[in-house]
Design a protein that fits this description.
With 293 residues, this protein is mostly helical. Helices cover 85% and strands 0% of the residues. The longest helix has 110 residues.
């Protein structure tokens, strides 16, 4: 198993300082994890290309031993890709909740996780299309093999054999084998049909898992958008409360300045009155004293 598919990953939640000086950008771990996730998405896409190639080899191989080997490789690679997809989902989710405090870092986190999420969804859609295409090709192969055994098969019989949802297809094929004049070739066709049915079931399982991943990513986006809306609402409330507080502070300052100014005016008036009284009294007593003499 490839190391990129099976290795554990660390959640980027503890920014570390570089060079031991405590001055490193707290977003360094975030950027490192973004790069690592991008590499894993590229690995996922490479896996899908290899899966497509192995599907093609399985369909086109005429050697039973080589076909078995291709199927084994395909099963292993599909398992690795399944694990990688689940890891990517978890890592993108962890990045979306990476702890940041600065407003610009919050915007970077939101944009980067949105880009990674879109890239991941794109490769999932590519994988889904590959599996759908090869499911159709496997079904076409089953149809051709059945017509080797029963060239005059009706459309209903062909559909029953290709889908084989309730086992009726196997019964129809067995009945056709008993009346076929090409016994050896018919037995080989029957074995291949059985193999292709197994391949189709595996593909349908993968398609179900991909559909669940799409659903999980949609739920994740909705949850994150709701969280972002709550944060923005809280930020708006804080800003409004801060603005209101500043206005109240400004009003209080104005009142304090006005009261202080009024006190100084009162103090000045008091001094003026005292000075006038002193002058009047001085004149009064001065004049009376002169008359007495």
């Amino acid at each position: 198993m490839c190391s990129k598919c099976s290795g554990a990953y660390a959640s980027p939640t503890s920014p570390q300082n570089g060079a031991g000086n405590g001055s490193a950008d707290p977003m360094t771990n975030f950027y490192n994890e973004v790069t690592s996730v991008q590499d894993s998405i590229a690995q996922f896409n490479s896996n899908v290309s290899r899966i497509s190639d192995l599907h093609s080899r399985t369909l086109n191989s005429t050697d039973e031993g080589a076909s078995r080997q291709n199927e084994a490789l395909l099963d292993e690679l599909v398992g690795q890709t399944r694990q990688l997809s689940n890891e990517l989902k978890g890592r993108i989710q962890a990045l979306a909740s990476f702890p940041v405090t600065r407003a610009q870092d919050q915007a970077i986190r939101k944009n980067q996780t949105a880009l990674l999420r879109q890239k991941f969804v794109d490769v999932l859609q590519n994988y889904q299309q590959v599996e759908r295409d090869y499911r159709a090709k496997y079904r076409q192969r089953v149809e051709r093999q059945f017509k080797i055994v029963k060239p005059d098969a009706s459309p209903e019989e062909v559909e029953a054999v290709v889908n084989d949802t309730d086992g009726s297809g196997a019964q129809i094929f067995t009945q056709a084998l008993s009346s076929s004049t090409r016994y050896g070739e018919s037995r080989m066709a029957y074995r291949e049909v059985q193999d292709r049915h197994q391949d189709i079931k595996k593909i349908e399982r993968t398609l179900e898992e991909l559909a669940q991943l799409f659903n999980d990513m949609s739920v994740l986006v909705a949850q994150q958008d709701e969280a972002i809306d709550q944060i923005q609402t809280m930020a708006g409330n804080v800003e409004a409360d801060t603005s209101a507080g500043l206005k109240q502070t400004e009003i209080a300052v104005k009142h304090a300045r006005s009261a202080r100014r009024k006190r100084w005016i009162c103090f000045g008036l008091t001094l003026t009155i005292i000075a006038i009284l002193a002058l009047v009294l001085g004149l009064y007593f001065g004049l009376n004293g002169g008359k007495n003499k």
